[in-house]
Structures are given as C-alpha cells and as structure tokens.
Write a structure and sequence with these properties.
Elements: H1 6-13, E1 27-33, E2 36-41, E3 51-54, E4 61-63, H2 71-81, E5 88-90, H3 96-99, H4 102-107, E6 111-115, H5 116-124, E7 139-141, E8 144-149, E9 152-159, E10 167-172, E11 177-185, H6 200-213, E12 219-224, H7 230-252, H8 257-263, H9 270-273, H10 280-292
Parallel strand pairs: 4-5, 5-6, 6-7, 11-12
Antiparallel strand pairs: 1-2, 2-3, 3-4, 8-9, 9-10, 10-11
C-alpha cells in the first residue's frame, strides 16, 4: 500500500526504513495529561507524524497511525498502555506518514473516521498508489464531529484548503489540548500540499483559528516536531506570513522564480526552519507558486 509522497518522506527522514522489517520500528509514549498520550518513534526513529492516543473505560481513540511499517509497533505500544483494542481512529489528513497503517488498525477492529475529502482522495488513487478497502474511512464528516468518551469531549473540525483539502483538527477543551495535525510543524518550514488542495492562505487562516482557540496553557501536539504551546504556534504563523510577504515583494518587483531563489529572501530563517523535506529553497518555491497561480 502506497500513498502520495510516502517514498520521498521516507528517503528524507529515515532511508533505512525502506529496507527495514516492521518489527524494527519501536514506538514510545509520552503522557500529556492522564489518559492522553503522544506516540512517536523511539530514539528519533521516524514512525510518521505525531500520533495521539486517548484511553479509558469508555473506549480507545487513536489520532493518526503513522507509516505502513508503523502498524505492528503501534499496536504493541497501545496494548502495553491499555490492553484494549482501538475503537476509533481519526485521520487528520490524507498523507501516508499519518494514515499509512489505516488497514492494519481497521483489521484489528478500529472504525476509521475522516473528512469527506480524505475518503474521496483515497478512492481516486489507482495503480501502485491504490489502497485496500480496509484503509478507507468508514465514517466521514463535512464540517465537524464530536466524541464524548472517557470523561472528555473531543471536538473534531475541518479547516479548509490548508495543509490539504481534508484537514481535521482535534480539540479537547476540558483538558486544554489541541492535536493540530500538519497545520503545525514546530520549528520546521511547513509542507503545504497544493496538489492536494492546500494553500498558504488557508494554512495561515487555520493557524489563526488555532491561535484564537488556544490560551497560554494550551498543549499543542503538532504534526511534526516537539510538543508545543500557543507561543510556538504564533512564531510558526508569523514566520510563514513573513515569508509570504518577503516573496510577494520580489514578485511585485517583477523578479522571476529563479531570480527569487537566487535572492534567497528566507535566508534569515534557514538555520532554524530548514529541514530535509522542506528546505529553504522549496519553501520559497512554494510561496512563488501560491502567489502566482
């Protein structure tokens, strides 16, 4: 089973995973608040995007499930924490580093829930990218859906044309936690997938919505990077907005894309925000594309 961009992501983060057996991936857990955990790869192993797990007497809810190779280790980690199967799996968007183990989780009893556009995009994939029926969301929503489990409210809502056209954010208001999915890359240039309906304007609007939703004590689980807070999110939003402004000025001055790349308008951000998948150059090209198409 393959998803768009999954090979490129693997090559950037952990080339050894392309040859690794499933059992070689290990997943660790960090308790955010009692009953809510963030799961990721042990010792820097790339298991996919950050994963959240809500456990309790009412049931088990998982948010995203990593790469296709992550499934067995993820199930083992969940079994160690709760001993119960996953009841509901929420997908935050369509990329394979976040929903690559959908089929595995479904085969172990999870009901998959996602925005309408995620199911639609998965159904459109053909050939080598085609997914099995087990990977498809069984319950979809257009705007929002709310869970009341384990004494908590989990409000799942859609943000339009941001990272993709099917992004979902999960807000736990009573414990003041937000699972942002790829609406936040903490101290990393964000990937904005314009080929899957994403846009810089939509991404900024989604981040503004999260900033308004959060307070100084809110815990934010980003799609990639360390656990964050509202101040971190504001920094990420401001870097993106300023990057867009810098590139727009050069476009308005009549410069070509290659001239803009040579001018390197995002140089000030390179040392902190540049990374293997979204380099400073790629972020600049994304800005040019978003402002000229």
């Amino acid at each position: 089973m393959k998803y768009r961009l999954i090979t490129g992501i693997l090559l950037i983060f952990a080339p050894g995973l392309l040859l690794a057996q499933d059992s070689e991936i290990q997943v660790q857990s960090t308790e955010i608040v009692p009953g809510l955990y963030m799961l990721d790869g042990v010792d820097g192993q790339f298991a996919g995007g950050n994963i959240s797990l809500l456990i309790g007497s009412d049931g088990v809810v998982l948010i995203d499930d990593g790469l296709p190779t992550t499934g067995p280790a993820l199930l083992a980690a969940i079994a160690e924490l709760t001993g119960e199967p996953v009841d509901f799996l929420i997908n935050t968007h369509v990329h394979g580093d976040h929903i690559g183990s959908n089929a595995t989780l479904h085969q172990h009893g999870a009901t998959i829930i996602a925005h309408d556009n995620i199911r639609a995009r998965l159904l459109e994939m053909t050939g080598d990218e085609a997914v099995s029926v087990d990977a498809l969301p069984e319950i979809t929503f257009s705007d929002s859906v709310t869970f009341y489990l384990n004494g908590h409210k989990a409000f799942v809502f859609h943000v339009k044309n941001a990272h993709t056209d099917g992004d979902a954010i999960i807000h736990f208001p009573d414990i003041n936690v937000i699972h942002a999915g790829d609406i936040m890359f903490n101290r990393l240039f964000p990937f904005i997938d314009m080929d899957s309906g994403g846009s810089v304007a939509g991404f900024l609007a989604a981040q503004d919505k999260l900033i308004a939703l959060a307070d100084d004590d809110t815990i934010i689980i980003p799609g990639h990077g360390a656990i964050a807070n509202r101040a971190d999110l504001i920094v990420a939003r401001d870097v993106l907005a300023d990057s867009q402004s810098r590139v727009r000025k050069l476009i308005d001055a009549g410069m070509s894309e290659e001239d803009i790349i040579a001018a390197n308008p995002l140089a000030d951000y390179h040392d902190v925000w540049n990374w293997g998948f979204i380099t400073t150059e790629r972020m600049t090209r994304s800005m040019v594309r978003s402002l000229t198409e």
